Amino acid sequence: MPEFDVDFLTEPDLVFDGGQSAKDPRAGLLKYGPCPPRDGSEHEIVRIGLIGDSWSISAMRGLLEDMRYGILPNGSDRERWNQPFPGLGPNSELRMSFDQRQMWRGRIEEDDLDALTGVRGESKRVEQAINYVKFQMENICSQTPNPDVVIVSIPETLAELLTEGKKADTIRTTDTDFRSRIKLLGMLNDTPTQLIGPKTLRGEDVQPKREVAWNLAVGLLYKARRGRPWKLTELKSNTCYAGISFYDERGTDPDTRASIAQVFMETGENFVIRGDPVADIASDKNTGRTHLSTEDAERLIETILERYGERREERPDRLVIHKSSNFWEEETAGFISGSEGVRRRDFITIREHHPIRLFSNTQYPPLRGTVALPPGREEYYLYTKGFVPEISAYNDSGTPNPIVVRPHGEVNDTSYREICEEILAFSKLDWNSSDFCKKLPVTVGIADAVSDILAEPMAQELPDGAFPYHYYYYM
């Protein structure tokens, strides 16, 4: 067996109101409150739109009402990592309240839902259901004032009808994805959306109500204020971070894929860039992974740096690219030529699975932040999940396994430690959740969610001038 070196990275800090720092998102929110919005207000009143049938609207309003008064863990769950949900209102640590006016409610009538049973064909049935939501969405968002966020509380009968005979809870056909279409409807109405399923409202979700409340509150706060509840302190100044991935465009040639880039700045600001279609000749027939031609790679990087410059009024000193596939020679050449003038570059492949496991000589799994360094150090194995001393817990099931971090052999200007520290920090930037961390950094970890939306034919028809760049539309 080859000998591995093992290193340990300290947990990145998060910044909250007043520049105060904490390592746990929930602990920081409870102690200091979220980062204030740009208008400087101390308390956020989130205007909530609601779409559903009479039952799902009533059940959703019941959940929002429970959130006002706080939700305690069950008796057996009173552990340090199970923070009680503190409640909302003027005196809440979360500094937010909900405003639910009647004019922001869109009710789908029972007769409409009954009529769906007579619609033949799965695709036509889903299209009709989306039209019901579209009508209500347009009506709600045209009100003055309009809601900050629209919650689509999926009717139980609708979910049963559209997932009939399927094990999955997701409503998806070969032509379209229900969630993605709702997200696009929100974009067309300049309003972020949130979907809630009937299992969650009935309390049959795998998460307890306290967890649902925490994640819902953080997600709604992020979407309503169009800003971050917390940010990082660890990112390097004047660095552009880009996660690049690919997706199939529905309704087009099955061999055609398109590229997307998720771009982050050291301030935590982020945006989405839609790249050009990629021809099938750029696909690796052995692995099925898509790669960019030199020209496509150059054009995509030029767009990323142009958008970065529009926000910072300067080009970055450093470019970091995260990708789940290895860098082909043609891609690398395009990324380099497109970033001419950038002083430092790091091209990094990040993969979720590897068979290696580390075991400690205690009852606990490896610590989050552990890095295993094999001989040669061509790649590293980083534990983004593991025992977390800050909450005295490993709150996942099974034995944790590391992610694979593989720097490019020739385009790598930064130490393994700094690269892994940045990835560890990016695992704490999913503002649609209040979890301590995710396994993958957001640069690649939420690519599937963004891709599902951009794969829709409706998204492909959006002109660049109307293309929604902000993350809160996709979350």
What descriptors fit this protein?
Nucleotidyltransferase, domain 5, alpha/beta, 475 residues
Kindly describe this structure.
The structure is a single chain. The chain is α/β, with parallel strands linked by helices and 475 residues long. 31% of the residues lie in helices and 20% in strands. The strands form three sheets. It has a nine-stranded mixed beta sheet with strand order 1-15-16-17-14-13-10-11-12, sandwiched between helices. Strands 4, 5, 6, 7 and 8 form a five-stranded parallel beta sheet that branches. Strands 3-2-9 form a three-stranded antiparallel beta sheet, covered by helices on one side. The radius of gyration is 23 Å and the shape is globular. The mean pLDDT is 87.
Quick structural summary:
InterPro entries: RNaseH-like_sf, RNaseH_sf. This protein is α/β, with parallel strands linked by helices and 475 residues long. It is 31% helix and 20% strand.
The geometry reads as: globular
Q: What's the level 1 CATH class of the largest domain?
A: Alpha Beta
Structural class based on helices, strands and sheet pairing: alpha/beta
* Total number of beta strands: 17
Return residue spans where pLDDT drops below 50 for at least 5 consecutive residues: none
Average of the residue pLDDT scores: 87
Helices, strands, pairings?
Layout: E1 5-8, E2 14-15, E3 21-22, H1 25-32, E4 44-52, H2 54-69, E5 96-99, E6 105-107, H3 110-116, H4 122-141, E7 149-153, H5 156-162, H6 178-188, E8 193-196, H7 198-201, H8 209-225, E9 231-232, E10 239-248, E11 257-265, E12 270-278, H9 294-312, E13 318-323, H10 329-338, E14 344-351, E15 370-373, E16 380-382, E17 403-412, H11 416-426, H12 442-445, H13 447-454, H14 457-460
Parallel strand pairs: 4-5, 4-6, 4-7, 7-8, 10-13, 13-14
Antiparallel strand pairs: 1-15, 2-3, 2-9, 10-11, 11-12, 14-17, 15-16, 16-17
